[in-house]
Queue: 2 jobs
Job 1
Amino acid sequence: PSQPIIAVSILSADFGQMAMDCHDVINKGADALHLDVMDGHFAPNLTMGADMVKGVRKHLPDTYLDAHLMVERPQDYVEQFAKAGCNNFSFHWEVTTDNPERNNRVEGVNATDLIKQIHDLGMDAGLVINPDTPAQALEKYLDQIQVALVMSVWPGFSGQKFMPEVLAKVQWLRENGPDTMRVEMDGGVAPETVQACAQAGCDMIVSASAVFGSDDRQAVIAALHDGAKY
Ligand code: DX5
Ligand code: ZN
């Protein structure tokens, strides 16, 4: 339907030369940058926070910044991410009060309230589902969110293998969500797997290791664009 967006995840960038790497992939055809935020609790890794958004924003004033919060309490960070210059704020369905498995270690967040807060701060809102969460979990939010993000790996690290079994969820989201809602795929997407994602209905693609791991980043981003137009 709409032009596909290729969002390059900076998780595979060289953190010691972040601005340079961001400029590089944008100059080589990336449409947006994806920022993977982890707190060491929801996902078994520590990555970056709002200061990274701020730093990237300072060097790339016009780039769409897509933040993916893999944290227990996304509600604690929404304001600082907005102030830092974030365009999209995506949080996991698994940390919301809708998740029956949510234990009392951390109190769940009300998804509708958080979506409203994200919108009030001028950002697009996204809801993310882990590989074992059904697409139907997002049903009541499809008219409120701009992005439904389907994880095709377990949150934590770049460079993992794409899980094709999540493609059926993309199909369901595409069929049941409004045309204006993007369906984003994240994890193990490379030129070899992007066409299946697009065919299922994805119009937003995340890629970290396939892009940063290549010595011809321009060719990889072009291949992702081509495959995503499928
Ligand atoms: C996984 C992150 C992904 C990841 C993608 O926890 O949400 O965005 O960095 O990396 P690749 O493209 O290497 O699978
Ligand atoms: Zn991500």
Job 2
Amino acid sequence: HQENSRTPNKQTDKFIGGLLSPSFDEESCLSRYRSALFRKDSPHLPSSYLIERLRKYEELHKKCGPNTPLYHKSIIQLNLGQSIELMDCNYLVWTPFNGLGNRMLTIASAFLYAVLTNRVLLIHQTVDMVDLFCEPFPDSTWILPPDFPIKNLTKLYQGSETSYGNMLKNKRIKDDVSVPSNSLPAYVYLHLEHDYQHLDKFFFCEKDQVILQKINWLLLQSDIYFVPGLFLVPQFEDELRWMFPAKETVFHHLGRYLFHPTNTVWGMITRYHTAYLAGSDERIGIQVRVFSRNPISAENYLKQILMCSQQENLLPEINMNRTLNPTKSTMKSKAVLITSLYPEYSEKLKSMYYEHTTVTGETVSVNQPTHEVQQQTERQFHNQKALAEMYLLSYCDVLITTGWSTFGYIGQGLAGLKPWILLTPRDQKPADPPCTRAVSMEPCFQVPPTYDCRAKKNADLGALVRHVTHCEDVEQGIKLV
Ligand code: GDP
């Protein structure tokens, strides 16, 4: 199963080389077939096997999705309180946790896990997530119906009695692959958050996957991109290799397959893109995220950004003597898109290019759609703006992102670009070196397990498995290359 090497013509291109099903009504979700046209053609086409698996998944989802007889049958089974062998449909219920970038990474991870294990992925949609994404699967819905019998899904946490780790600890689940389905609970909660414990991490072990396969319903709460962890599980190896002959394209393909901004968000994206970005010869996205655990002044962080840009030759240098050199003037224009919670970065950069000519003669416009000041994940409109900005970043030709930020991971993954990653500032000073080029466009799995299930001892999994390496921004993290 080789990567599909044919060049797409404009007609197939809107379906991204067959990644998208053509069975949707275009008007109800304009972004679905138009978003890819805002970018240069991706050199990474989906493999024919991935396309086959996606169509197969869509069939399963249609058969088992909400409001089908098989879904109702499964709800009856859930209410019985125990798992049943050979049910027609098994489910994975995703619940939201943390910011939108984290959520999108975990939806993509959950979806891949659902495909690998023949489960149907359902999304517990809280009010802050309404009107963000279109339905990704034709003739069905991925939204968990509100009358789902398990309540308080957002209250699940490390200590929940129903978590896989706690069930193992309390011997509610026997650590034995031959355990029959009917002795297993109807559902189990997978706690895959950054604070997950040793027994929760058994999720990435071969034997535990055999047990989990017998449980009809899985609930998942996570804030980490755990896809690289799925590559550590032996029974998924072959499928993953066939689906993704180029490992670093996993999120690139899954993100473009799953996430389609609704018409409300698409309106914001296209209005901004047309007004501020489309007219330039080149677009440079700079994603500025300042984490409170590593504070730095706007002045110093901008210094770091400019050091990075100078070192890597990303933004035109300015001419310090301010005089116009008529022979150097070209018609070339660059648009810088800054995304940040704070206005200072674009204000300062804008003044810099207003007050000085560039040594190349290029003109530089500096644009920033919003400056929300504070993260407000519980507000729907705030999330819509965040989503719009991730998309705008993904239409850039060059990206500078902030290390550790999942917001940036989404932009780079959708774009299919290896960004320059700003390294974490220390002691309020710019990091030195200021940035490093990403080795792949994949997001980082920031908190991977450190337990080698086969050898039954701790190990550096970043060094153990092919196609997995340590992240540039997160030392203990791992990513696909
Ligand atoms: P991370 O915390 O950087 O890994 O990214 P998340 O997306 O998970 O959480 C950060 C949240 O803060 C975003 O989802 C937004 O709600 C908000 N935020 C951070 N940076 C920006 C930005 O540049 N623009 C906008 N509109 N919101 C931002």
